[in-house]
Amino acid sequence: xxxxxxxxxxxxxxxxxxxxxxxxxxxxxxxxxxxxxxxxxxxxxxxxxxxxxxxxxxxxxxxxxx
Length: 66
Prior knowledge:
Elements: E1 9-16, H1 22-29, E2 34-41, H2 51-65
Parallel strand pairs: 1-2
């Protein structure tokens, strides 16, 4: 049976749990024939004021993915 909703594309997004806007934004931009599939990874709400704070966030995300 063919896919009636995602016949053009199925788009996957993995977002940090602290990002609360990515899913509604992607849903608003979704063209016909495309389905969005979201999952969240648990990361703490870290303050990002310096470059090394961002590196720590990326390390936390990587540890959740792999």
